[in-house]
């Protein structure tokens, strides 16, 4: 573990009612790093992200920047700079692209700052700049995913949680999207945790990775170490495009 982690998770348990999904997860994430979460369907990856942003009840400890945040509501986590882009994107189809983006800045009141953030986000996603006035529902799947990430960036997050960003996207769009995530991490030093089925791309972007199975971490290490592990090669990398 990092000597001074930005995110420190200790003995984390979470689930839905009587159904327990996470069983004692412990890991840390250094500030400004990208961490990939890999694992089969049903391993608890989405539940982990929901636990980190306050969407499910947890037992255990979550520290963010040295502050205990376990049990805080999603709104409180957002105020602390945690932005969650869920699987399925969650854009508002009837609203314009610009309206969707500005919704991401709901906790800010400084219009000058919001306008500056909008320009900053559109620099990352120039395709959205061309369609600002159009309804978000008319965007392609890849553009909607860019919009969802752009809306999260309007929060000026210190921790960005991405759940299956490549789901349903073509390989070309997926490559472009991960390159943008890499650029955001490098330029803004945003800490990123990404849940992703495309292990090749996730490990190419990440600094560290954890493999989950049935709600437990079964393998952890640097991205290079995980990429070289025979179990990962056989289970994940051998089946990726």
TrEMBL record:
SUPFAM superfamilies: P-loop containing nucleoside triphosphate hydrolases
Keyword field: Amino-acid transport, ATP-binding, Nucleotide-binding, Transport
InterPro entries: AAA+_ATPase (IPR003593), ABC_transporter-like_ATP-bd (IPR003439), ABC_transporter-like_CS (IPR017871), BCAA_Transport_ATP-bd_LivF (IPR052156), P-loop_NTPase (IPR027417)
SMART domains: AAA
Keyword ATP-binding: yes
CDD domains in the cross-refs: ABC_TM1139_LivF_branched
Top-level taxonomic group: Bacteria
UniProt key word Nucleotide-binding: yes
Pfam families listed in its UniProt record: ABC_tran (PF00005)
Domain ABC transporter as annotated: residue spans: 7-239
GO molecular function: ATP binding
Family: Belongs to the ABC transporter superfamily.
Name the record gives this protein: ABC transporter ATP-binding protein
Organism from which the protein derives: Nocardia aurea
């Amino acid at each position: 573990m990092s000597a001074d982690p930005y995110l420190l998770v200790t003995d984390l348990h979470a689930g839905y009612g009587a159904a327990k999904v996470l069983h004692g997860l412990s890991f840390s994430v250094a500030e400004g790093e990208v961490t990939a979460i890999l694992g089969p369907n049903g391993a608890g990856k989405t539940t982990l992200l929901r636990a980190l942003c306050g969407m499910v009840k947890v037992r255990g400890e979550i520290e963010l920047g040295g502050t205990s945040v376990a049990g805080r509501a999603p709104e409180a986590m957002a105020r602390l700079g945690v932005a969650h882009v869920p699987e399925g994107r969650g854009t508002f189809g009837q609203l314009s692209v610009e309206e969707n983006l500005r919704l991401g800045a709901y906790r800010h009141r400084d219009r000058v700052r919001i306008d500056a953030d909008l320009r900053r986000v559109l620099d990352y996603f120039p395709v959205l700049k061309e369609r600002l006035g159009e309804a978000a529902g008319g965007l392609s799947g890849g553009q909607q995913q860019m919009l969802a990430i752009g809306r999260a960036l309007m929060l000026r997050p210190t921790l960005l949680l991405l759940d299956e960003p490549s789901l349903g996207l073509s390989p070309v769009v997926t490559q472009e999207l991960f390159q943008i995530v890499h650029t955001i991490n490098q330029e803004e030093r945003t800490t990123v945790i990404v849940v992703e089925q495309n292990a090749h791309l996730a490990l190419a972007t990440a600094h560290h990775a954890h493999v989950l199975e049935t709600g437990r971490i079964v393998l952890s290490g640097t991205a290079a170490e995980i990429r070289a592990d025979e179990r990962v090669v056989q289970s994940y990398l051998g089946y990726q495009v």
